[in-house]
Amino acid sequence: MSRETGIPTGRLSTEVEFKARPSEPIRKSPSPEGTIGSAIRPPHYAEEQHGTWRELYRRQCEILEGRVCNEYLSGRELLQYPSDKVPDLAYLSEGLRRSTGWQIIRVEGYVPEHIFFRLLANKCFPCTDFIRHPTELEYTPAPDMFHDLMGHLPLITNPRFASFFHAYGLAGLQVRNDEEIAWLGRIYWFTVEFGLMNKNAHKPAQRTPKETVIYGAGIVSSVGEILHSLSDVVKKEPFNVDAISQRPFDIHHMQDTLFEIASFDELESEFRRWASEKALLV
Ligand SMILES: [Fe+2]
Question: What's the CA-to-centroid distance between 20 and ligand 1, angstroms?
C-alpha cells in the first residue's frame, strides 16, 4: 500500500519496462518475472503454507455466506479456487483471461502508483505469491496472496467491475499532480478495498440494513473487517464519487463511515462521468 495515497498496490518483483501507451500491451523486461504476458512460475509451498490457505479459505467461505455480493460469489466459483492447497497464479490468470480478458502479473514488492495505474490500464492485476504466517491468520500488515486472490480477483471476472477497474487505470495515467493522485486513492479505498453494496442505497424509504453486502477486497479478506463493516457501528452513506474523492481516510484504523453502491453499473458509470469531468478520461 502506498503510504502517500493508500492505494494498495500489490508488489513488484522486478523493473518492468513501461514504454507502451495505455491501450498497448507492455512487452519487454530484463527478467521474465514481472513481465506482462510471461509465464508465472509457482514457488514451492511447504505443507504449513498449504495448511494456512486451507484454514483461511474455509473460514472465509463460512463467514462470507450471506454477507457478500452475488457477483463476488459468481467470480469465486468461476475461478475454481482449490480449497486444499495454495492456488497456482497461472491457473487463476487463465480464468481471468477467459472471463474478462484480464491477467495476473506476479509481483513481490510495493508497486508505485504510476506502475499500478499502467498495469490496470493494460488489464493486468498485480498479485503476490507469498502467504502469511500461520500466526497472522487474523491480520497481516502487508497484503498477501490471500488478500490479492480472494479479495480482488473474483470481481475482476465481472464485466462491469472489470470495466470500471480498467477505466480507473486509464484515469490514473492521466493524473497531473499529487492532488489528483489523492482523489484516485480515496476512490480506490472506498470502493475497491472497502466498498459496500445495497440495491436501495439511494432510496432511503426502501433501504434496509440487512440488504447491505460487501464487495471491497479489504473487507472480504478480513474476518474482523467483515463483521465490523456490516455492524451498526459503521455509518453507511450512499455512494457519491465526487464526495468520496474529497474524503480523507485513516489506513491505520477501522472505518467509521463506508459507502454503498446500488450496483456495479452505478460504480462504473459514475466513475466514468467523474473522470471525464475531471479530464482524466476521454
Ligand atoms: Fe487490496
Answer: 25
